[in-house]
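[SOLVED] Need 3D model of a two-part complex

Original post:
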Amino acid sequence: MPADAPVAGLDRIELLRPLSADRRAAVARQCRWRRFAPDEQLIDHWADTRDVAFVVEGRVRVLSHSAGGREISFSDVEAGELVGEMSALDGRPRSASVVALGEGALIAFLPAKPFQSLVTAHPEVAMAMMLRLCDKLRGATDRIMELSTLGANNRVHAELLRLAKRGSRQGASAIIAPIPVHSDIAARVSTTRETVARVLSDLTRDGMLERRPDALVVRDLSRLEMLVEDVRGGA
Amino acid sequence: MPADAPVAGLDRIELLRPLSADRRAAVARQCRWRRFAPDEQLIDHWADTRDVAFVVEGRVRVLSHSAGGREISFSDVEAGELVGEMSALDGRPRSASVVALGEGALIAFLPAKPFQSLVTAHPEVAMAMMLRLCDKLRGATDRIMELSTLGANNRVHAELLRLAKRGSRQGASAIIAPIPVHSDIAARVSTTRETVARVLSDLTRDGMLERRPDALVVRDLSRLEMLVEDVRGGA
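Solution:
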């Protein structure tokens, strides 16, 4: 472990909670620890690696690129979570790349074999791992449905609704803070930054959205909800 | 168990192989067994069920519908596999519907609680379950990339390539038999039946595809491979 790696670093990893502190410290010693600068790549889609990466500090983004170089992002992974678990479990190539966001990230890489032993030795860890995979698969299924049935405009509406639901409420309004970056929204719903800019400006003109210095305000959450449900169908 | 349910029916389920025959028979007795006719629905997207469904005989299809009624299919599940495991594991609503194909299906439904106990009590079963979820997640990730970066024509090419790779070889050719139904391809790559018909007829005109009475022949697999790789990019 490098000098700046917290000895109890893995205590922050949700998946490893069921382990004893001693067992977690033993796992920490099996890890290769490294700090990554913002935008630095920690997992290369095309590299022949199979480690799992525990995100001890910071945030990372799972992403891929189209042949034309457009970014398609899959998920942002927060401190306390992990990434790269598929290749560590099944030994197959990486499905995407992972880069550090914001302030960078402190990562503990555990090789595939000890990760597999860890997961199978503890039923609670195994179940937590399965729930994590189910959660990712549900997200992917929703995205496939959106890509298959909604146009780019409506996918931006749907993403805005997801952000709004995670934000704080003020009466009928929902506050999204900080203001999301257009290119991030574009990469999450597989469209261009220009489309995102146009859809947000249309919503602002229609009075559904308000841009404050530090936040984006959805002025009537239920109206946005109806807009999305109308196109998506649903129960 | 109904009279026509084979006593050793669950012996065919790959996931349950690590269990002893006695343990499998005990699980079989906890199941609700039912035979479904072709096209009959065994899991309803909008119903409040959480059982896992073991496919003992026949084949089933996981699918959903757009607001406009277009079918989006996720995967076909063969005898020996299972379906509906996400809701059984995480207790959340169904992500799609499941219908019986071909000759119908014999299904053993196991309630969520005993399924969870089963999966966590046996490390090999837990690992097999994780590998299955990883495999589905990889398929979903590929599909998101295709939907995000390829037009409908190229998605049909990519699906044809997948079918050809699973088929038998004859020199440079690959034999796809039986002939796939246009609407099935359409539902798998999220396009219309008309687009599939047009793309296949274009390929036939260009001499890349040949329609025989009982099979579809990709006459030059490496040429189709290049066609797909050119658009998709890749390593």
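Edit: The mean pLDDT of chain B is 93.
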